[in-house]
Amino acid sequence: MLGAINHTGPWTQPLNQDLHVTLDREACVPFSHYVSLKRTPMSSRLKFPRFQELPAELRLHILAYCDAPTLFQLLHVSSAVRAEAKRLFWSQPDVWYCVEGTWLVAGGWPGLTTTDLPFLASVEQVEVHFNHEMAIRDDWETRTCTGAPSVRTQSIEELAQGFWQTLQRLFPRAACVTVSESKARMAVDAPPDDLAAVVRMCPAGIRASAALVEEEELEGEADSPHVRLRRERCLWRWDGEVGGWERVGRRWVRRSVLPPPKPFCGPVGAFFRNNHQCTRYCMRSRAVRYLLLEARERHHFDGRYEPFACLHPGCRARFTRPGAWTVHAVETCHDQSEEPPTPPATFRAAFVQLEESLSRIRQRDVDGELESMRQAWGQEGSRERTYAERAFLRQLEQDPLYAHGGPASETSTWASYQALMRTE
């Protein structure tokens, strides 16, 4: 999964210290970062004060060349071009907004997600992710409440129908939907039955696909015991006319954008905010490995040519061109020979700064907020505990931002909150 970084150059931007990486080792972008304007050396000198004086057709033509952050600014500040900027912004062909599939199967209730639901109404391309092939049948709410495995009793057709009804309610403008899963498969394997059923039952007006992680074992070096694996996410589409699956291209390339979080307020909001911050922290921590790979490529090949050998003891591979080291490291994990890994000298200060930033985030937004919640929770039988329980359950019952469609005391959120409050 090499799309997370620029491992081959040319390198025109600084190392992306805000990189987020999923459990599937794929890059994703929080919406706030996606629409953030990037300052460039030329940005302060490029101005166009007479833009509004241009003919309307020419203004609209210029918009077609604007990037997403610029379009996002225009649709908020310029009434003259707002409609066209909005159309262009939401129809970016390589941008997909990612949500969890199990949440949609469970009904898409506000109390089961940190996502800002009104935002979803504008999204046209949706990536729906399932962690494993049986996730569609996994009754994770009941499992969270009882601690025992639980499977939904509906047929896959009923689950797929409910899935699409929920998706269309939350994403009324959805035109393209890709259903993805985490399990790695052989390159010749078509989508698994449950995922295939969901795609085949796609409603009219929506184009559905399946995105699978395909794994291929490569021939290793003769004197190396290490297995080399190549993993890529590929797209499959169902051809109803021939009744079969069509593999689309070699690799699915896209920008996976994380929708913005909803407002966090009250004790339930504090719990959801901690969950959100923990997820983001883990994504940024996971990205450090890939930033180290890119840093070493830059150190040896950005403005210089310094071939180098593999860092792993006993490996005789040598890298003479940009990108070769990263491909080798991802396929063999040879970059993880050092513990902790050492950044190249030219980037050492940058990684010290990154590690310090991540440490502050963990102390303040993850561990610090959790400790504050546990202090408010109080001891068993105390007045603080009684007040905290009542306040949390009352908000679950009354706040539409955290609605579940059932009694508050029987929700997975309440069960998860109680489990989190138990100190080790």
Automatic annotation (TrEMBL):
InterPro entries in the cross-refs: F-box-like_dom_sf
Which superkingdom heads the taxonomic lineage of this protein's source?
A: Eukaryota
Name of the protein: Uncharacterized protein
Q: Lineage of the native species?
A: Eukaryota, Fungi, Dikarya, Ascomycota, Pezizomycotina
